[in-house]
Design brief:
This protein is of the alpha+beta class and 76 residues long. The protein has one domain. The protein is built from 3 helices and 2 strands; from the N terminus they run βαβαα. It has helices at 30-38, 55-58, 60-74, and strands at residues 18-22, 44-48. A two-stranded parallel ribbon has the order 1-2. β1, α1 (30-38) and β2 (44-48) form a beta-alpha-beta unit. The longest helix has 15 residues, at 60-74. It is globular and about 35 Å long. Keywords: Hydrolase. GO terms for molecular function: methyl indole-3-acetate esterase activity; methyl jasmonate esterase activity; methyl salicylate esterase activity. It comes from Platanthera zijinensis.
């Protein structure tokens, strides 16, 4: 059997990860999202209170503010 010697996504983990926790997500509860953060290589967690599973539709302005803050923090 042939086996790929490296990961299918070799770049995964090569950049800092920021997790957006959505406070009103009915698909992934906040507790489950926190479990995902605990079990992932996440550098920072930002929470958007009131956002559902798709913050780009439910709270686009707040999501944009978070993205701008992340950009200002990590791009030098």
């Amino acid at each position: 059997m042939m086996v790929r010697p490296t990961s299918f996504f070799p770049w995964y983990g090569s950049v800092d990860n920021v997790f957006m926790l959505c406070g009103e997500d009915a698909s992934l509860t906040p507790d489950y999202q926190r479990w995902m953060v605990k079990n992932s290589p996440v550098k920072e967690v930002m929470e958007i209170n009131g956002a559902d599973h798709m913050p780009m539709l439910s709270m686009p302005r707040e999501l944009c503010q978070c993205i701008v803050a992340i950009t200002n923090s990590y791009i030098r």
